Amino acid sequence: QVQLVESGGGLVQAGGSLRLSCTASGRTFSDYAMGWFRQAPEKEREFVGAISWTGVGTDYADSVKGRFTISRQNAKNTVYLQMNSLKPEDTAVYYCAASRTWDWGTRVDYWGQGTQVTVSS
Predict the structure, then answer these.
(1) pLDDT tens digits, residue range 84-117?
(2) Residues of 25-37 as b/e, b for ≥16 C-beta within 10 angstroms?
(3) By three-state DSSP, how is residue 8 classified?
């Protein structure tokens, strides 16, 4: 089992920045690629981005490219989501996810509980 705990959410004005953290416990952190998803009210959960097992590779949704950056520190069992130039449409609950396979559509092994991000206009 892997437990994922997000932190860092909150209320920010449009154009501002937030950094989310997700700390894992339970199994070897570097065995998992790590991803971030979000879910806005009355919308489906959507992929935000992901980082590979060693941190060399990343992938982002088009809607956040150039604004969001994912990084990880395996020694601290932590993955980060740096969010800059935030927009009201970024408002959502943000979830951390772990996958052994990089198959974010169907093979997420563990989810965090989520942290709320609200961007005011």
Answers:
(1) 999 999 999 999 999 999 989 889 999 999 999 9
(2) eeeebeebbbbbb
(3) coil
